[in-house]
Amino acid sequence: MEGYLTFRRPRRIITIVLAGFTVLILLLAFTFTRPNAKAVDNIDLSESRGSSNNGTGDDIAAKKARLHFLVPATSSNANLCKLMLSAQILGYPTPVLINFGDPENPDAYVQHLAKVQGFLDYLGSILERDKAAGVEEEHLVFIVDGYDVWLQLHRDVLVERYFASNAAADERTAREFGQELFEEHDMRQTIIFGPDKICWPIDYALGPHQDKGPLELNTPRWLNSGTILGSARNLRDLFQATLDDIHRNHVTDSDQFYVAEIFGRQEYARIERTRGLGPGKDLMVARKNWTYESGDFKGLGRSEPTMFGNRTEYHIGIDYTSSMFQTMAYWKQYLTLVRPSNSWPPAAHPDAYNPQVVRVPDDVAQSSPPFSVLSDSTSETDLDLAAKWDDVDLLYNVATEQIPVLIHFAGLPGKEKAFREIWWHRMWFQERAEMLRLAALNVTARDAINKTPSKKIGGYRWYNAEPPEADDIRLRGVDGAWADASGGWYSWRGLCSAFEPTIYNRTGNHYWHPV
User: Fold this and answer.
1) Mean pLDDT score across all residues of the chain
2) Integer Cα distance of 284 and 263 in angstroms
3) Among 268, 246, 271, CA closest to 257
4) What is the domain extent for residue 186?
5) With contact defined as beta carbons under 8 Å apart, do 278 and 182 qualify?
6) How far is CA 19 from CA 23, 38, 219, 426, in A?
7) CA 20 to 30 Å from 292, out of 105, 217, 235, 501?
8) What's the pLDDT at 15?
9) How far apart are CA 440 and CA 91, in angstroms?
10) Is 128 within a domain?
11) Residue 398 lies in a domain
């Protein structure tokens, strides 16, 4: 990082500018009383969630892979429990709480190091465990902020979209930079971050008139470190580089700043390697004459980072269309909760409109139906157990035309974060949350005990990751969360019972839940 820019304050400006231009170039290539549920202890081992291993040659040939679920959280509250509830209903792995129970250090530098070190320690432990056992399994690691994320779609949809996004990104990158350069520098995408419409911590990379309008009109070309999905091995390298940058040049207490720096260097290096090639050619020439536009540095020229001898490729990408990760900041006027079965084109004047009809994507339609974990014996006689995803309210982005896997309430208290209260009662599962949670835990525990994998995705059979200690915990610990450092397990009762009235409370307004 030393010598990255001549002046310390705007160090990251040039890489973010160039990363932004690279992103824009690449973006041109694509369009924009308790319910009557079975007790968790009563497990019927004959059933399972979704597809199971049917013993065919295709199943036997598929490699084994595990999905890990990491949540940085030092303590429990209602927002953490809402995340856990949505994850349990939708079949995600039991979360591992990073730095849970650790006191907040008054030194922000120390506190910040602890978070990144917590990720590194966990990633190192699972890879070392494989090494000691003489196996080499694939580990996919899902990381989300603990206090402002909800899930709305199944685990398998997340994994399918991860592989689809990587394949599309690799195709675009190879087309943009050439297949030879792509392979020579291994430009594959294996780590995906959520998108942001602003550079955070705020640093107007393009000057005070950036994007020439309200922030809501910005294109989402920055990364948000509150939602991440990636290969364990590549994430370990990325977090180690992040920790090294923090040690070398600590200027802020946001991990997003340092990860954005690394992403910026990656994109800068990719452009640098295309001198004289394609769209990057003019940019590399024009940048020589750029100067700072405001502040103490107005009129001063910009120096370029030195890349020689430094690793720059970390396989980072961004979920630009929000197919997986939907951030809230400056997006809320484009987001709505809709029921696809209630969406149809207008019959009158069909030629005068270009209607946007909300349709459930194939990957969602083919996943387990919303209420499939419930048995026919449920006492909820007004509930249609055969309901499909078309029949429930789902968050929808009208700009990208995506139904995302999750919603991340990034933004300001009293603004974007206020929607954690406004929208909770509109989530498709909330009205029957307790019944769905208990029923889903039956299925998840059964799959864990039977070692039932998912269908094959990306050439792998996917299992929910669990620590060795799961053998010693009732129902393998699915009804709670693991703690990383202590290695302990915390039950739902211990973490969330105090918040159940808030989580399970029904508004009594069935307008929100007509099913």
Assistant:
1) 79
2) 18
3) 246
4) 1-325+404-503
5) no
6) 6, 52, 13, 37
7) 217
8) 47
9) 7
10) yes
11) no
Q: Is 501 exposed, middle or buried (0-12, 13-18, 19+ CB in 10 A)?
A: exposed
Whole-angstrom distance, CA of residue 83 vs CA of residue 60:
34
What is the 3-state secondary structure of 370-429?
Answer: CCCCCCCCCCCCCCCCCCCHHHCCEEEECCCCECCCEEECCCCCCCHHHHHHHCHHHCCC
DSSP state of 291: B
**What are the pLDDT digits (tens) for 1-44?**
333 222 233 344 344 444 554 444 444 343 333 334 444 544 44
Place of tokens 């497990």: 43
CB 402 within 8 A of CB 325: no
What is the model's pTM? 0.82
Lowest mean pLDDT among 45-54, 106-115, 397-406, 437-446: 45-54
- Which helix (H) or strand (E) element contains residue 500? helix 500-504
Which amino acid appears at position 487 of this protein? G
For residue 94, the 8-state DSSP code is P
**What confidence score (pLDDT) does residue 309 get?**
76
Q: What is the dihedral of CA 88, 93, 94, 95, to 10 degrees?
A: -100
pLDDT in tens, 476-497: 899 999 998 667 999 999 999 9
Amino acid at 375: S
Alpha helices in 226-351 (DSSP H): 232-248, 255-272, 280-286
Peptide linkage before 201 cis (omega within 30 of 0): yes
Q: Is 443 helix (H, G, I), strand (E, B) or coil?
A: helix
DSSP β-ladder status, 138-144 and 191-196:
unpaired
Q: How many domains does the chain have?
A: 1
Averaged pLDDT for residues 179-199: 90
Q: List the structure tokens of 484.
A: 């990383």
Coil, helix or strand at residue 64:
strand
DSSP string, 452-515: ---SEETTEEEEE---GGGGGSGGGG-SEEEETTT--EEEHHHHHGGGHHHHH---S-TTS---
As a whole number, mean pLDDT of residues 132-153 equals 92
- Residue-wise pLDDT for 218-234, tens only, equals 666 789 899 999 999 99
Cα separation, 248 vs 485, in Å, equals 26
Phi/psi at 413 (nearest 5 deg)? -60, 140
- Whether residue 348 is contained in a domain is answered as no
Specify which residues 192 forms β-bridges with. Answer: 229, 317
Contact 95, 482 (CB under 8 A): yes
Least confident of 86-100, 125-139, 370-384, 390-404: 370-384
Does residue 335 belong to any structural domain of this protein? no
